[in-house]
Design goal:
Helices cover 59% and strands 13% of the residues. The protein is of the alpha/beta class.
């Protein structure tokens, strides 16, 4: 999902450019003013609450605003993302939007600020007042509106500048030229957006083989906490020695180990296009941890794949692997194999349900040759990446 906030002072031309962006990128338009009017005209509970506040001369609270935005997002499922016009207007609302989008497992990808000199804005708005015969749009009123924008909304631009997603665009000139400038920065932000994949499957499903192939194909950094832990064991580090005791029994290692390993991988690949997580997160708690780790770098999980392999097939594959040079020490013991499969069933299956609710999970048949399974995954991945962007 791709989300844009379009900023600019009154008279900057946000409405015109919004319509063009919505059509080009298949976005749903979110203007709090428009949504409020719609809710009021429909007589919804939220609309009635907002109407009573407005009729008493008050400002609609952020609590109501966030509810109508959440409703709008949840009821528009056939779009590639959302365009926020004139929202957030304050730094408080910026934090509210961050939390709301986090709840919905997405984030704001870019904030486009249309920059127009004040004398041009005054000229445009006075001309518009004449055409629309708006007697209330006097020089004094326009000046107050611009002052209000500067005092409250400009700090929001600084908020997104610190996050590295604020783009300034010259808003003066021919409409099509301005639109081209906007789309240039949108495309630029698209290339910066990470694509993060989680690949699941029971022990023996072929996650490692398929994960490495796909990570290489799409130029993503491959992260296998199991492989990283085995390297720690080989080095004889404190973490490795501690992790070995858990892994030999088929148990899940403490979460702090995974956090340290993943953070290190993210920090050492600042120019990555994204990350391919093999077999992590394995618990609901780890799902929250991964969300937090990616949120720290203004990213999120793009899509999740589940390799569907029957339990009996997993046991056969692990037993066969134990007789090859690719064997793991935990492949040798049937009790350990069964314990690992039970852990997957009891602790990891709920994670799949977690991602199922977020509607970004794809189940792929894991039975067949390496090439057949790889082809199925690649086909689904193309669809997932298109939806993510």
């Amino acid at each position: 999902m791709y989300n844009i906030a379009l900023f600019g002072p009154p008279g900057a031309g946000k409405g015109t450019q919004s319509r063009k962006l919505i059509e080009k990128y298949n976005l749903a338009y979110i203007s709090t003013g428009d949504i409020l009017r719609q809710e009021i005209s429909e007589g919804s509970d939220l609309g009635l609450k907002a109407k009573s506040v407005i009729e008493m001369g008050g400002l609609v609270s952020d609590e109501i605003i966030v509810q109508i935005i959440e409703k709008k997002i949840k009821t528009n499922t056939d779009v590639n993302g959302f365009l926020f016009d004139g929202f957030p207007r304050t730094v408080v609302q910026a934090y509210i939007l961050e939390g709301l989008l986090l709840k919905l497992n997405t984030s704001l990808n870019c904030m486009v600020s249309l920059e127009v000199p004040q004398d041009v804005l005054m000229e445009r708005m006075l001309e518009r007042a004449k055409k629309e015969k708006r007697a209330d749009d006097t020089i004094e009123v326009i000046q107050n509106r611009l002052k209000e924008y500067k005092n409250k909304t400009v700090p929001v631009a600084d908020f997104y500048k610190e996050k590295g997603i604020k783009y300034s665009v010259d808003g003066v000139g021919v409409l099509d030229d301005i639109f081209e400038r906007i789309t240039n920065v949108v495309e630029q932000s698209l290339t910066k957006a990470w694509l993060n994949v989680v690949l699941y499957g029971p022990p023996g499903s072929g996650k490692g083989t398929q994960g490495k192939l796909l990570a290489e194909k799409y130029d993503l950094v491959y992260i296998s906490t199991g492989s990283l832990l085995r390297k720690e064991i080989e080095k004889g580090t404190d973490m490795g020695l501690s992790a070995k005791a858990y892994m030999e029994k088929g148990d899940i290692v403490p979460d702090e180990f995974a956090i340290k390993l993943i953070e290190k991988q993210i920090q050492t690949h600042p120019d990555a296009k994204g990350f391919f997580f093999k077999g992590f997160p394995r618990t609901i708690v780890q799902a929250y941890i991964l969300d937090g780790l990616l949120r720290k770098v203004n990213s999120s999980v793009s899509c999740v794949f589940n390799l569907d392999v029957p339990t009996l097939e997993s046991i056969k594959r692990l037993s066969a692997r134990s007789k090859t040079k690719e064997s793991r020490y935990y492949d040798m013991d049937t009790d350990v194999i069964i314990r690992r499969l039970e852990n997957f069933q009891n602790r990891t299956k709920p994670v799949l349900d977690y991602y199922e609710k977020q509607k970004n999970i794809y189940t792929v048949n894991g039975i067949g040759s390496e090439d057949e399974v790889s082809t199925r995954l690649a086909e689904k991945l193309k669809i997932a990446f298109k939806n993510a962007r």
